[in-house]
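User: What would this chain look like folded?
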Amino acid sequence: MNATHAWTPEDLTAFAETYSLVLIAGDGEGGGVEIGMVPVDGDLYVRAYRGTRSRWYRAAREHGHGRIRVGGVTREVVLTTGDLALPAGLDDAFRAKYGPVSDALIAVPQARAATIRIDPAPAPA
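Assistant: Here's the prediction, encoded as structure tokens.
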């Protein structure tokens, strides 16, 4: 878990109970991309089923920050890509939440390589 800026128990419950989130990478005002997400061990993860060449994954890697919308709540976030230490239960969490639809996120190496950890952004100083 990212100890510096942790999700609240209420956030984690919302992530578990909500089917998808909207991710906007960078400072743009665009509509973002709607994607599935899973909380594991207090952290939030998403994957690009098209792999690291996915447009929104590349934007997340380039900017390293953005916003997510879950339900009616918008949060500023930090987007961590690349050499993540993935938690052991990540594939199982995708499978449990999304069933057979999750196969593209679990079985395909390109999707596994395009995993993003989403953390709450630090509060402004």
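The radius of gyration is 13 Å. If you want, I can go into more detail on any region.
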